[in-house]
Structure formats: C-alpha cells, structure tokens
Design a protein that fits this description.
The complex is a heterodimer of chains A (472) and B (380). Chain A has 472 residues and is an alpha/beta fold. In chain B, the strands form 4 sheets. In chain B, strands 5, 6, 7, 14, 15, 16, 17, 18, 19, 20 and 21 form an 11-stranded mixed beta sheet that branches. A 6-stranded mixed beta sheet of chain B has the order 9-3-2-13-23-22. The chains are: A alpha/beta (472), B alpha+beta (380). Chain B: This is Sarcosine oxidase subunit beta.
C-alpha cells in the first residue's frame, strides 16, 4: 500500500476496492498492466467486506461466511502487484480519463488508459416524516460502525424498511448481543404475486436458503411486524417516537434509535459526472449506466463493474469485475488476455451468479409512499426543501431537477443532490405525469466528493508529462 | 404554418429578454430554445451585475440595463435575487492602481461617472478581508449580483405570460427567407414572421454564418466554483485587476469563485471538460488573499458554453445584409448584466426602428472593417 500515487499515469485506474474492484485490479495487475486501485476506506473490502483486514469482530460466526469470503480476493490483489491507495477520495473523472484524487489533505491528478469504476451502491433515500431528526440513521451507517468498530446501537432500537441488507444487519446486531425492540417490514405484499414468475430460478439460488435462514433467525429473537404501510418519526430535537400503520392499525412506540433501509441503488455519481450515459431501470427504480456486454460505457475507456453497474450483490460484482478487467487486458495487452478464461465462460459464470436476482428485484420494489413522500416531508435536507415546495415549483413551470434549481435550492447544497436525487426525479415525474426517464436527473459535476480549497490549492502545478494530456 | 410577429432563436437571457420587451410593445413573438431556457451560459454564469470595467463601446448599454435591474421585480414579477452591494476592482500593486487612475480619468472625460477611484482606506472599508498590501482600486457602487438561472427562468416565464409562444427542447432548423418572411421549422411545427432575432449564444455564430454574415467567434466555457458556507466576510463582488479572479459571497455564506479560466466546451453534447490545473490557480489565489477561505469545501465546479468574438464585444443590432434579421449574440463572457437592457434596445430597434441608447460600436458591420481595440476581459 502506498500513500501517494507513485506515477502520473497508469494503464488502468480501478476506483473502489469492493468485490468488483478487487477482482478487477487483481486481474489487470496480474496481467502486467500498471494498475492503481484507489479506495476511500481505511482498508480494502468496500461496504460488504468493510474492514475485513482490521475488524475487531474476530469471531467468524458473528459477521457470517459471506463476509469472510472477501479475504481471498484481498490476498489476490495484494499479491498481484497492483498499487493500492487507501484513504484516497476520487473527486473527479472526465472523458479524457483524468482522475482527480485527494489523499492526506493533498490533491493529485493521474491519467489512465482505461478506467474501471467500481463505486458500488448507495442506500436508496427513505424520506419519511422526521427522517432528518438526530437518532434516525440508515442501516448502512449502523453496519459501518458495527463492522469497523464493533459498535452497537444503544437504547430502544427500531429497524424499519425492507430488503436483504435490513435482515442481515438485524441478524448481525442480535448475534453480537445488541437489542432490537422491533423490526417493521415495509415490503409491499402485492409484490409477491408480481415476483412469482421469477420464483423458480430463485429457489435454486444461494439467496433462497440464506435469506430464509436469516429472516428466521431474526424472527426468533425479536418482534417483527409485516405489511407496514406508513412510517413517521417524531420528536423535538431528536427522535422520540415512531408512528406506523400495519394492516390498517395505527400504533406509536417510543424509540431512541431508528434504523431505516429500503434497499440499495447504484452509486452513479462519478460515472455521471464523467459524462457516462445512464438509463432508468423500471424494475430496480434507479439510474444505471448504459454498458456493453464487457462493461464499457458510452465514454470510451470507462468501464463500470459491480453494483455501480446495476444492483447484483457481491458475487455478481466479482464476476462483472473480471469481465471488465478482461476487456481492458484485451485492449491494452492482448497477448496477456489469451491466458484468461474467455469471455463466454465469464459471461456464463455471471449469469449463474445473477440467478434469482430478478425475483428479489421485484419482491423488494419499495412501495410508492416510501419513495415519493407526502407534502410536508423534507426531500432535500441540505436546503430543507419539502415535497410540497417541489410540487409547487412544478406547478409554476419547473420541468426537471436541473430546472428546479431556478425555483428552489434543491440539490445545490453540500450533497449536490447525491442524497435526494432519486426522490426528486420520481416526485417530479409523478407530479408531471411523465416517466423518470423523461424527467431526467441532476447534472452532476465534480467534485463528486467534497475537497477543501486548501487541498485544491495544493495540487502540484502542471509538469510536462501532465501537459501532454490530449483534451478532447 | 404559424404566423408570428417575430421569431427569436435562443432561450438565454438575451432571447428571453427580447421576447418580454417585444410583448410589452404589443408584438407576439415565438421563442425557440433547443434545450431549455438558461441551460447554458445564461443559467450558469457568475451572476455578476456589473457596469465596472467594461469596454467604453458597451457602457451606455450597461447603464441602460442597470436601470432595468434596479426595478427587475416590476418587469418579470421575481426579484431574481438581485442585490446591490457594489463591485470592486482591486489593485494589488502601485502600478495597477496607476492604471485604475488612468481608467477612471478616461471614463470621466467621456462623461461616465459610475466608476470611482478608491484609496487603500476605502478599499479596506468595503472589503475588510483584502490583503493589507493592496493600495486601492475602483468601485462601481450600484453594481451587484443576481441568480442567473432564476433570472433567465423569470424572463422566460414572463414572456410566456405576456403571450409569447415558447418552444423548448427542440432547435430551430431550416432557417430561411421566403416571400418576404422568415421561416423556421421546430420539430413538426413551422413558424413564419417578418422578423428573425439571432440570440443563439454559442450557436449564434453558426446562424450568422449560415445567413452569409460570418463573424470571428469562438466557443468558450469559463469555469466557476462554489464553496460551502463560511461566515459572512465580504459584501461586494471583488475582481482582481492583475490576476484572473472574481469573488462573490452570497447571503447564505457560500462563495462563488470565478475569473475566466476556461474549460473545454463540447458544443454538440453541451458538455464541458474542466481544467483542474487552472481551477487550482484560482484556488491558490483565494488561499493567499483570503485565509478565512482555506478550510472551505468546494461543492461544485462547472462551466457554461458561450461565444466570444474576435474583439470581445457583442454583436447587437440589425443585419448588414438581410431585411428583418437582427443579431444579439457573442457577449464574450460579460452578457448577463446586459440582458435586460439589450432586450429593451432590440425591441426598440425592431418596433420603432431606432433606439436612444448608443450601440454604435456593436453592429455586425464592424467585422467588414478593421477591428476596434480589444476590450478588457472581465466577468459576466
């Protein structure tokens, strides 16, 4: 591991050291391509294998077998000769394949012949009344604390939402001796029928038994209420209570910590800022990059792998990482590509890993009321813009997220719409009676991660090598 | 075929302003915008409302426009977030101050009084955060800033309310003159009118050239950055005389950093590729001049596509070749403040046949003659 990039230019820069990035970098470096693997965390592993090399949680049973499966990929990439840069934030990427990154308070620009984006997933926004109160956090944030520091949520804990990660986190908290007062399952029961045609491949996928076992484990140790159709956090200064409705019955319970989660969506921020074309996925209800069968995007030289290419989970991410890496090796060093499994083999392995996914995608489509909030709910927390404000702006003439900026400061705050973007698109689409694809998304620009003025000022002045960049 | 009184191509602040002013004079124009109003330079510029440091040829237009800015809410039913805390040009050396002195004297000789020479003490009073070594500068006290996206959108909406036909999302094609009328196609629609206004910004040069009036014009994309909120420390807009920097703090504490460093524009896709080495120069200048800014976070960097002419002055006025054709483009990084005034002047030219605002140096005919001297480069 190095602490600043050792070169100004690489054959390949892989962004993100989760399953896809680790698998890709191990292959490209192993093929003899100068490979830089950049990651913003303390160690490799991404979200799913976060802190795999450093976690204080050593008892393997607690985090589960899938977690520890990451160790082998980490070993591979470390042996491959890839240059690994941890705690490095990539804040810019453009179609000239110049990467802006920041490490230890200093900024650098590096160039690449090819880019593999493995930026993973983000949690889908979950805008319910009171979601911005202190004490309300995402399940992902809670899991980060659990994996990297062994920290458990304290007090009266309620977990609300749906999706595989919700059950996994609940199981992990309970195994580690944490308490959960209540799990509120918001999965839309009407999805079961719609998902039925996708059931057979799911039954033979690894998801089936793992998922059932985890749900059974959680149900055995805490109360689970299903069919939840509304949620509202209440409190003055911090969350104190949660009101919910299930099966037509309203209840309210006291709560100190509310963990919210309703699935993950591709983290498209860097790809979009680089100009990669995206499309709206009507099943996963999110933006996904337009890619060819080798993971290459509409911007020549930029490949996308892993959950950033569409949610598939860790195993799918590994296969997509290998496919992208193979395409890069073929392009830059064809003779090294001959030693690798051919594309058809990799594609059939990917198809096997993706089995059962279609069932989960439909089953866990979040219900409308949890994606498109009621008027009084805050949508853009940076600038405190409510759903009503946005609907009123639509009535005045705002046609899409970018035009909305002329009416409200939605998406203009510190997060630049990275937290509210999906909500704004779906809300405006509904208000205008259009599809999300017609409404579009915020035009994302660098820096996609914040950098300070001092960091940018520290950027080394252009040298001859860096001046040689052909700007197109 | 839909008949209108005028066809305006381009939904930037200029096209939208001309649409509003034509409506106010009783005409019914069609406004055609290939993306949406304010998509490019008009919606994403620095928002400077500046008479300061302009080429003398456009000062009368700028003064005319300033009067409209000061009652902008009456014109477009929106305050456009216009605020007037002045604009200050900072001299960092004695030599630069001497140049400022000469400039103010030149303007006074021409009868303009909006620029005022200031000494170190007045500079410190206006901009306390400025470095102690700066000996003075120039202030234009009525200047200020506005929200460019909000302003352009407000003009566009007002035009619609006043009866203009607005078409967004499709460009005008097949621009032609037939039977004494200008005709254009917009998707499956066809419009005709006795008047055609070319207000197409970065695309205006192509339209002029296509109609036989080529203008030396390049496509540029000046870059800007905005920071996270910092405690209020500066009210006026600040421009450096010697270095490429302009600086503005908004009421909410965020700071806009500009100065005219250029990105690479892609006119066909509307995208721009930022040049971080140039942005680094801006960051370093701010780092040196305003220590309070060092820990601020850069939230967004961007660039808007626009046209810059060979002499840095806009093309404004009737065609030298065709009847019924008017040009209003090429504002060369400083067109935002001119928008309201230029629309008013254009409406007078079209409806009354003349304007009281002198715009003699801005006509397209000048490119058939030797060029005037270049204007000082500054901020929009």
């Amino acid at each position: 591991m190095t602490s600043i990039p050792q070169r100004d230019a690489y054959d390949v820069v892989v962004i993100g050291a989760g399953p896809a990035g680790l698998a890709a970098a191990a292959l490209t470096a192993g093929a003899g391509l100068a490979t830089l693997l950049v990651d913003e965390n303390m160690g490799p592993g991404g979200q799913v294998w976060r802190a795999i090399t450093t976690t204080p949680v050593k008892e393997k049973r607690l985090l589960g077998d899938d977690y520890w499966a990451g160790q082998r990929l980490v070993d591979d990439v470390r042996a491959s000769g890839a240059e690994i840069l941890q705690r490095a934030t990539v804040w810019s990427l453009d179609r000239t394949l110049e990467v802006g990154l920041s490490i230890d308070g200093g900024a650098r620009l590096v160039r690449a012949k090819r880019i593999i984006l493995a930026t993973g997933a983000l949690e889908r926004p979950f805008p319910i009344p009171g979601w911005t109160l202190p004490g309300v956090m995402t399940a992902g944030a809670a899991q980060t604390m659990l994996k990297s520091s062994g920290l458990l949520p304290q007090g009266r804990v309620v977990v609300a939402g749906q999706g595989p990660l919700l059950w996994l986190l609940s199981a992990q908290i309970l195994r580690m001796g944490g308490m959960i007062d209540l799990v509120l399952d918001t999965a839309d029961r009407r999805n079961r029928l719609r998902a039925l045609p996708h059931l057979p491949p799911f039954l033979t996928s690894p998801y089936f038994f793992k998922g059932l076992a985890m749900m059974r484990e959680v149900r055995a140790r805490t109360q689970v209420v299903g069919g939840v159709t509304s949620l509202a956090a209440r409190g003055s200064g911090r969350v104190e209570a949660l009101a919910y409705e299930a099966g037509g019955r309203r209840s309210e319970i006291p709560v100190d910590v509310l963990l919210l989660h309703q699935g993950v969506v591709p983290n498209v921020n860097l790809a979009m800022a680089a100009g990669v074309r995206h499309r709206w996925d009507d099943v996963q209800l999110c933006w996904v990059p337009e890619l060819d069968e080798r993971g290459e995007s509409s911007v020549a030289g930029i490949h996308v792998a892993g959950d950033g290419a569409g949610i598939g989970g860790a195993s799918v991410a590994v296969h997509r990482g290998r496919i992208a890496a193979r395409a890069v090796i073929e392009a830059l060093k064809p003779e090294a590509g001959l030693a690798l499994a051919d594309h058809a083999t990799l594609a059939s392995e990917l198809a096997r890993a993706e089995r059962g996914r279609a069932f989960l995608d439909v089953l866990f489509q979040p219900a409308r009321q949890f994606r498109i909030p009621a008027d009084e709910t805050v949508v853009c927390r940076c600038e405190e813009v409510t759903a009503r404000d946005i609907r009123e702006s639509v009535a005045l003439g705002a046609t899409g997220p970018n035009q909305l900026k002329a009416y409200r400061r939605t998406g203009m705050g510190p997060c630049q719409g990275r937290l509210c973007g999906l909500t704004v698109t779906e809300l405006m689409a509904e208000a205008r009676g259009r599809t999300p694809a017609e409404i579009g998304y915020y035009r994302l620009r660098a820096p996609v991660k914040p950098i300070t003025l001092a960091e940018l000022a520290s950027l080394p002045k252009g040298e001859d090598a860096t001046k040689a960049v052909v700007r197109g | 075929m839909t008949r209108a009184d005028a066809i305006i191509i381009g939904g930037g602040i200029h096209g939208c302003s001309t649409a509003v002013h034509l409506c106010l004079k009783g005409l019914r124009p069609v406004l055609v915008e290939k993306d949406y109003a304010g998509r490019h330079a008009s919606g994403v510029n620095a928002g400077g409302v500046r008479q300061l440091a302009r080429h003398t040829a456009e000062i009368p237009l700028s003064i005319r426009s300033m009067g409209l800015w000061e009652r902008i809410a009456d014109i477009v039913d929106d305050d456009c977030e216009f605020e007037s805390h002045g604009q200050v040009l900072v001299a960092e050396t004695g030599e630069e101050l001497a140049a400022c002195r000469a400039r103010v004297a030149e303007l006074e000789a021409l009868g303009f009084s909006h620029e005022e020479l200031i000494d170190a003490a007045e500079l410190r009073r206006l901009v306390p955060a400025v470095s102690d070594s700066c000996p003075g500068g120039i202030v234009s006290r009525r200047d200020g800033a506005a929200s460019p996206a909000r302003t352009t959108t407000a003009f566009r909406r007002k035009a619609g309310h006043l009866g203009a036909i607005v078409r967004e999302g499709m460009g005008a094609t097949g621009i032609r003159r037939q039977d004494g009328l200008w005709r254009v196609d917009v998707g499956s629609e066809r419009f005709e009118a006795p008047i055609l206004v070319n207000a197409a910004g970065a695309w205006g040069g192509d339209i002029a050239a296509g109609l036989g009036e080529p203008v030396p014009v390049e496509t540029v994309a000046p870059m800007l950055m905005i920071t996270s909120r910092v405690p209020p420390f500066i009210a006026p807009v600040v421009i450096l005389r010697g270095r490429k920097l302009s600086f503005k703090q908004f009421g909410n504490g965020t700071v806009l950093i500009g100065g005219g460093h250029l990105a690479t524009p892609c006119r066909d896709t509307g995208e721009t590729i930022l040049d971080w080495r140039k942005l680094q120069e801006s960051a370093r200048t701010v780092f040196e001049l305003f220590p309070v800014m060092r820990g601020a976070t850069i939230v967004r960097a961007w660039a808007g596509i626009e046209a810059r002419t060979g002499d840095d002055l806009p093309v404004l006025g009737p065609s030298a070749v065709h009847e019924g054709l008017y040009h209003q483009f090429g504002f060369s990084l400083h067109g935002f403040q001119l928008g309201p005034g230029a629309g008013a002047v254009m409406a007078e030219l079209i409806v009354d046949g003349s304007t009281a605002t002198p715009i003699d140096g801005l006509g397209i005919g000048r490119f058939a003659r030797p060029s005037p001297p270049p204007a000082p480069r500054g901020q929009p």
